[in-house]
Amino acid sequence: MLQHALALREQLPAQDHPELSESINNLAALYAAQSRYTEAELLFQGALRIREQALGSGHPNVAQTLHDLAGLYTHQGLYAQAEPLYQRTLSIQEKNFGPTHSDIATSLLDYASLLRNTGREPEALPLEERAKSIHG
Prior knowledge:
Helices cover 81% and strands 0% of the residues. The protein is mainly alpha-helical. It has one domain (2-135): CATH 1.25.40.10. The longest helix has 19 residues, at 37-55.
């Protein structure tokens, strides 16, 4: 169904339309869940390109794709590629939502997990504490 939705949206006059990027991002997430990592990465990168061009680099939808791509890299153990994406995600989210939004807590926990996986527990602790304070 996601492939069909993508095919329909690709028929839109503008190939850089934000709705197209939503379908691409959703299909990429499905592929990531199916361990189809190469396909997922290419789709996430395509969705990111469209979203940055159509919405601007500071838009929350850009942060969503950055977070999803960072998660894909983290799942594969590609921590050096994931870390700057988590950092950029957090920056965009904080500018758009403020410091206490639930999306920020999720990103903080995911970034903290990456830090723990790379043996950087002291850096992870403040992120986890901040996430806990957001969730209450």
